[in-house]
Amino acid sequence: MTAARRRDRAVYTRSHPALFALLSLTRCAPVVRIGRTVLVHGTDQYREVLTRLPLDRTATGTTGGIAREVSGGDGVLFDQAGADHRGARRALAAALNASGVERLRPLGREVLERRLAPLADGGSVDVVDVALELAGAVTAELLGLDLAPRRLADAARVAAAAAARVHLPGPLARRHRSAAATAAGQLLALVGDERAAMLAVAAVNTTAAAIPRAIAWCADDGRWPQAADPATREALADELLRVLAPSPLLPRVAGADGTLGGRPVRAGDRLILVARHAARAHDRDPSVSAAQPAATAQLVFGAGPHACPGARLARVQLADALAAFAPYRPVVSRARVDRRSALPGWAVLEVSACASP
Ligand code: HEM
Question: What family does the Swiss-Prot or TrEMBL record give for this protein (predicted)?
Answer without folding.
Answer: Belongs to the cytochrome P450 family.
